[in-house]
Structure formats: C-alpha cells, structure tokens
Amino acid sequence: MKSIPFAFGAIALAASFAASAQTAPSTSNVTIYGVVDAYVQSAHGSSTVNRVQSGGLNGSRIGFRGTEDLGNGLKALFAIESGINLDDGTSGQNAFWGRQAFVGLGSSYGQVTLGRQYGSIYTLSNDFSAFGNTPTGPSTAVIGGFGGYEPVRGGTTASATGNGGPARINNSVKVESASYAGFRGGFVYGAGEVAGATNDNRIADVYARYTGGPFDAMLSFVDDKADVTGLSVRTTSAAAAYTFGPARVTAGIISVDNRSATDADGRGYWVGGDYRFGEHLVRAQYLENKARNVDVGTTKALGVGYQYDLSKRTALYSSLTHFKNEGSTYTNRWNASVPDGLLTGDDRKVTEFVAGIRHSF
Q1: With 0-12 CB in 10 A as exposed, 13-18 as middle and 19+ as buried, what is 294?
Q2: What is the pTM of this model?
Q3: How far apart (Å, rounded) are the C-alpha atoms in residues 72 and 92?
C-alpha cells in the first residue's frame, strides 16, 4: 500500500487550510484533565494472587488538551496525555506521554493530526465493549496473543511502529472527517521509519463509523507490516451497539490474519450490555478468544459488574469474572499478563473479583 504520498498530501492539505486563514486576533484555551483509578483484585486459579492495580474502569492519566481559533473556521489543536500506574507511581505505556501526544489543524471538514495517536482498534475495542479494553473483567484486552501479536493491548515490539501498536500508533499522520449525516471516516498512517523501505515498514489503518439515534457501528481494517522483522498482519474488526431507554447492548469481532511465516491467525468476539437505574449501573459480557493454525485453543470469559456513581466524577465499581482456557498447546490468556503460578497445565481456570474506585477531573 503506497501510503506515503497520502500522508504528505494530508499535510499539504492542512497547510493550504492554514494559508487561507486571515490574520486576526486568536482565542485559545487549554484544559487540564485526568483520571485516578485504583482497584483491589483477587484472582484464584491453581493458586491465588491478591494485589492492588491501576485503571480498572478507566486508565489512570493526566493530560493537557487545547485549541486555538485561527479564523475562517480553522483551529489549531493538541493533546498530550501521560498514563499513570497508580499502584506504584510509575509511568504507563512505556513512555511518559504514552497514552497519546499529537498536534494538528481542524476545520468544519475534519482534522489532520500528527504524533502518537489511538488506532481504530483501540477505539472500537473500548467504545463497543461493556467492560472496555481495561485489564479487568471479560474485557476485549483478552483478545490477542496470536503468535505474540496483541491487537488490543498493543505490543512492545511486534508492530511496525513499536510501543503499543497497533492500538496506539507512533510516528503517525491521522486524517479524520467531520460527521456527515452521522457518518465519519478516517485514515492513520504510522511510519516505521526504516530508510529505503518506507512502504514495507508501516501501519495503514482505515476506519468508518456511523452514529445515529440509538444505533452506533464501526468498521476497521489495519495492515501492520514490518519487513525488518518479518511481520505482516492484517486485522479486520466490526462492532455495533444499540441503546433503548436505560439499556445498551453491544457486540463485536476482531479477526487477525497473520500473513507472516508463523501463520498464527486468531479471532475474538464478544456480546454484552449494561443497564442504568439512577446512580446504579450493572453490566455483563461474554467473550471468546480463539487461536487458529498455531497453538490452537480458546479462552472463554463470562463476567458481571456493578458500578455506583457517588457523583458525576467519582464512582465505586466491582466485577466477578470466570475465565477458562482450552487447548493442549494454547498459551493461557487472561485480561492482562498472567502472573507466574496462577495457572498450571492441570488447572487453567481463573475466577477474578475486582473492587475499585475511579475519580475524574
């Protein structure tokens, strides 16, 4: 896929927007925001582990975002966001501004941004899952591990742009349209930055989303290629949600076609929903993660959760989830890295209980 001309074209388009803006007094604003979220987790498998972790409902973070009105409907925009492991105070996502860091231009037609940015898989796996893509419950973070490839959690090396790909994409140019009759679409190009092999080491991510009334749906296709390591993976995803009154049902699928020599394909799907009454929210979800061709096997997860909103910013939450791993050569999965000793070859089931608190500002 010849993506570089498109990327440069997007930047040139943004520059032309800027050139059309008349010199005028500008107005700008900057917002400081964040989430502090910590929970107690008790997991019982062949042994038991009890621990305090960070980001059970939403990832803990502190961020800065802002815009400047440049006139003629054009604006500058930016966001820098740092993940925080609240349990030990370290930075998340293996980088200080690891959640996202970008700058760009926007107008009534859409926006163009450059930096470290969310890929479409991150958005789809979070917005259309009753448990998001966090490391608790039957979340979409269970999906992956196909030959070491992690489409939802993001990998440290097994992606063309490195840390967090393809969920978060380094060195990226992102073009997203405005909403037209509920439809919006976008494209993300992540440069692998290998001299002489530009189009053989990159991520190309295209997506579309429709939101109208009670219905919300999203499609995504990601081509992740790194010739320097022999990686070639294509991921196709689809998800939908429907809201009726206080209830919402969701479902989705993420299918990984590993075109590398390992041919470690896989697929994950889920169906779930939530129901709100006053300050109370209950949720449930069933999820399966299936590895094919190599180390064939399945992880099945079924869980329920409860959330009580103390205010608009502070919530208490809990969940109870059962995980079951099947397949003689299949590597055990959970919603996070499996602690040593939690599972054995004879006992591959986990029952997890979580209780936590989240505050946003």
Answers
A1: middle
A2: 0.92
A3: 39
